[in-house]
Write a structure and sequence with these properties.
Its EC number is 1.3.1.91. The chain is an alpha/beta fold and 319 residues long. The protein has helices at 7-16, 29-34, 37-41, 59-72, 86-90, 101-114, 132-145, 176-185, 200-207, 217-221, 229-234, 243-259, 264-268, 281-290, 299-307, and strands at 22-23, 27-28, 50-55, 76-81, 119-127, 150-158, 191-194, 212-214. Strands 1, 2, 3, 4, 5, 6, 7 and 8 form an 8-stranded parallel β-sheet that branches. Helix 9 (200-207) links the parallel strand 7 and strand 8 (212-214).
């Protein structure tokens, strides 16, 4: 989710669910240590609980980046061992680390020693020609022995040779059962599942077998589904969701961002799919895709787009 789940995206998602754990896009440890930290790590206090996802393969650098993240107020530090992008391959981290479980364990050990908040890992079931049975077991055994508080498993292999990052999201077949078997072998460890989950109903089915479910692109492209998370997963009383209040909150947030020198489009680009499937959603998308990107656009554009959506016949509130 690099370049997607930035602070503006997470602020939107937090308006939809109070309880779900949100993750940052992956930030490289070297950038955290040497880069512009406020730009890379800054977030709105309403985003809690929120985890900082780090990329890297040097245990000491990751430990330092984890300390910095904890000082910024993050609730969890997550080490990415699953991203197959060209950027991470050139830096020998992300999914490449599936081939180096001992090094991953060393990274977790160093990070755990440096912070007092949970340290977790996100991985694949394997890469390239690896057999997912021993490969995933080796990674899981190592990180749990090192003290990892949770392991999130994307239930696909990553092919570092021959497939693009985009193809790696769709072409390798999903193998949810492999993750279920890992959980069965580790009944006292937190193991969550990721990959191809398109709805809350699918996520609930997975919870019968593992401890958590992670939504990525489904939550991004159709963020409205997050409005049902708190009732479905955390036992909150179901209620009519007030989308008008959400738009007001996002308009206020966008106004503050613009006052600091930002642009409306930085915020609204994450909101295009918010009303997917509702009458008027096409017009809403058109307004955000055109008017919101123009120089000088203000929060009134967002409210004009919202006015195009027809909520009649739904259980959501428009006003």
């Amino acid at each position: 989710m690099m370049d997607w789940t930035d602070r503006h995206c997470r602020f939107l998602h937090r308006q939809l669910t109070r309880r779900a754990l949100l993750y940052t896009e992956m930030v490289v440890a070297d950038a955290v240590i040497h880069g512009e930290r406020e730009r890379l790590l800054g977030f709105d206090g309403t985003e809690h609980p929120v985890a900082l996802q780090l990329g890297g393969s040097d245990p000491q650098k990751l430990a330092e980046a984890a300390r910095i993240g904890e000082a910024f107020g993050y609730d969890e530090i997550n080490l990415n061992v699953g991203c197959p992008s060209d950027r991470v391959q050139s830096g020998t981290f992300g999914a490449c680390l599936m081939k180096a479980p001992v090094l991953v364990a060393d990274c977790v050990t160093a990070m755990k020693a440096s912070v007092g908040i949970p340290v977790t890992v996100k991985c694949r079931i394997g890469v390239d020609e690896q057999d997912p049975e021993p490969a995933l077991d080796a990674l899981a055994d190592g990180v749990f022995a090192a003290g990892a508080d949770a392991l999130w498993v994307h239930a696909r292999k990553a092919w570092l040779e021959g497939l693009s990052p985009r193809e790696n999201r769709d072409i390798p077949p999903l193998d949810y059962n492999r993750v279920y078997r890992l959980k069965a072998k580790n009944p006292n460890k937190f193991i969550g599942i990721n990959g191809g989950i398109q709805s809350l109903e699918e996520a609930l089915d997975h919870i019968d077998h593992v401890d958590g479910a992670m939504l990525g692109r489904a939550a991004y492209h159709t963020p409205g589904i997050l409005a049902g998370v708190d009732a479905a997963f955390y036992g909150d009383k179901p209620k009519t969701f007030d989308f008008a209040a959400l738009i007001d909150a996002m308009a206020d947030y966008a106004a503050r961002h613009i006052e600091r020198g930002g642009r409306l489009g930085h915020v609204t680009r994450h909101m295009v799919g918010l009303f997917h499937g509702l009458p008027g959603a096409r017009r809403y998308r058109q307004i955000l895709s055109t008017d919101a990107t123009r120089p000088g656009a203000g929060p009134d554009v967002l409210k004009a787009a919202f006015a195009a959506v027809d909520f009649s016949g739904t259980d959501a509130e428009a006003a």
